[in-house]
Design a protein that fits this description.
The chain is of the alpha+beta class. Helix content is 18%, strand content 25%. A hairpin with a 7-residue loop joins β1 and β2. It binds heme C (HEC) (4 copies). One heme C binds next to α5, α6, α8 and α9.
Length: 375
């Protein structure tokens, strides 16, 4: 995703819409993180990228990250750069035939990621994305587990989350280098699958593996199962594997929700919630775990530049839980016992927004089943 941070179609479509609606006010701000070298070289504006050099279109790439030498404050892309022959990295003694090297403690710490993974509205300062802060105030920071320990230990088949092993990956970092006990992998996988509409190089599968190692479910089945009565089912969702809130990042777009189906013993559906309608919208009864912001008139908006105030945020902090309660009537004639099935689902963006940006019926964001539980 880092290498696509400029070319990513979802980003570009939303950014160009924002640029148009604000007369270019957002251009440089967005690009500080999405094409940092474009901003550094003063190739933005114009918003459409017509002045961008080839290198700037590569988004957040090797040489950019490995010449970050400091930062002003956490968030909003306030990195300090030292471009040149010296590349900064995590090894205290490292020799390369291609360039000089220097040790950088910053690269081994979450603060490095926090430079871009905390986002505040540039004028009203409302926190829009706080992945770094969510981590910093949570249990993983206390244990000393950095972003890098989960996101730079993943490889195909090894999601490296809070619920799975995060093994070492020994090897040689570059030609002529010695064998290292661990090389930090550079897949940088999150939950994003929508941008895989552009290519699929196995990253979708790794995103699915990551999401499937993020949460657990626990069903409390109905207790008084008599036909004709009202009853409740509870489902507890625990953020067991993410180092920050679940979901995190661009959470006015990301959606996580529960699908629940209660059937009687003959398989007849008694209750269902969390389904998608014909338009791809999640039904009104289910809770969507995300953040909601309001525009100047108090109406919900998914457009970052329109945000004037927060409305709600029901996401789940690391190692914490949320419980959903479902009230339903057991119809007369139902064959007992009842079966309950719950699935936690995730998608990178709501269908209506994707329709608005890409055109109707052009792109369907993948809905990922994170975890299923039955009782
Ligand atoms: C988002 C910023 C970022 C980008 C982009 C990036 N790196 Fe890294 N790289 C890091 C960080 C951070 C570490 C150190 C992780 C640690 O030690 O905790 C690292 C470590 C390394 C190392 C040391 C060996 C290892 O893997 O641990 C090498 C070599 C390296 N990067 C080369 C590259 C190359 C080549 C590219 C482009 C293909 C690249 N990096 C892109 C951030 C980045
Ligand atoms: C220069 C700013 C910058 C830095 C530094 C940076 N990132 Fe990012 N990162 C981005 C941007 C921008 C994107 C989003 C690209 C997109 O979706 O278009 C991103 C995307 C990601 C994603 C993919 C998210 C998804 O939805 O799938 C992960 C994971 C990630 N970064 C982890 C890290 C980690 C870990 C570090 C620190 C080692 C780091 N990043 C440092 C800017 C940065
Ligand atoms: C304990 C392991 C762990 C740590 C530590 C961790 N993450 Fe994550 N991260 C996950 C898991 C699991 C997911 C997938 C679930 C999700 O999307 O929230 C994820 C997802 C993400 C995403 C994608 C969110 C989305 O849905 O678009 C980003 C961006 C991200 N992490 C950045 C970071 C940054 C930055 C840090 C450090 C401040 C960090 N992570 C620390 C496990 C971790
Ligand atoms: C401080 C750095 C920063 C700035 C400034 C920033 N972004 Fe991002 N953006 C990110 C990071 C980090 C992610 C990845 C978060 C995640 O995956 O949840 C991201 C992800 C996105 C995505 C999701 C892409 C996808 O494929 O899912 C969109 C859209 C986006 N940004 C639009 C914008 C717009 C528009 C602006 C300007 C108003 C902007 N961003 C400014 C850091 C930034």
């Amino acid at each position: 995703m880092l290498s696509r941070s400029y070319e990513d179609e979802l980003f570009r479509k939303l950014y160009l819409l924002g640029s148009e609606e604000t007369d270019g006010l957002i251009d440089e701000f967005c690009m500080r993180c999405h094409s940092p070298v474009g901003v550094y070289l003063k190739e933005i504006p114009p918003a459409d990228g017509s002045k961008l050099s080839k290198i700037a279109k590569r988004g957040v790439f090797c040489d950019f990250c490995h010449t970050i030498s400091g930062y002003e404050k956490i968030g909003n892309g306030t990195y300090e750069l030292s471009p040149g022959i010296v590349k900064l990295g995590p090894f205290e003694e490292s020799e390369s035939p291609g360039h000089e090297t220097a040790y950088s403690e910053l690269h081994t710490k979450s603060e490095f990621c926090g430079i871009c993974h905390n986002l505040y509205h540039p004028t009203n300062n409302i926190p829009l994305e706080l992945t770094y802060t969510e981590w910093e105030e949570g249990p993983y920071a206390e244990e000393g587990i950095q972003c890098q320990d989960c996101h730079m230990r993943q490889s195909p088949g090894i999601p490296a989350t809070g619920t799975t092993e995060r093994p070492d990956y020994p090897g040689i970092a570059g030609a002529g280098g010695g064998k290292r006990p661990h090389l930090y992998t550079h897949y940088f996988i999150g939950g994003n699958t929508i941008s895989q509409i552009q290519t699929d190089d196995g990253y979708t599968q790794m995103a699915i593996e990551r999401l499937q190692a993020a949460a657990t479910l626990e069903i409390t089945p109905p207790t008084n199962v008599i036909a004709g009565t009202e009853n409740t089912v509870k489902v507890k969702i625990t953020n067991a594997g993410a180092g920050h809130y679940l979901p995190t990042g661009l959470t006015e777009l990301r959606q996580m929700w529960l699908y629940i189906k209660i059937t009687d013993d003959s398989g007849k559906v008694i209750y269902e919630s969390g389904t998608l309608d014909n338009e791809g919208n999640i039904d009104q009864v289910s809770t969507i775990y995300h953040s909601v912001f309001a525009d100047k008139d108090g109406n919900p908006t998914e457009k970052l530049w329109e945000i004037e105030s927060p409305i709600s945020d029901n996401r789940i902090p690391p190692k914490e839980s949320a419980t959903e309660e479902y009230l339903f009537t057991i119809p007369i004639g139902a064959t007992l016992p009842l079966n309950v099935e719950a699935t936690l689902k995730y998608r990178s963006a709501p269908q209506h927004l994707v329709d608005e940006l890409f055109g109707k019926d052009k792109v369907v964001p993948l809905v990922i089943d994170m975890v299923t539980e039955k009782s």
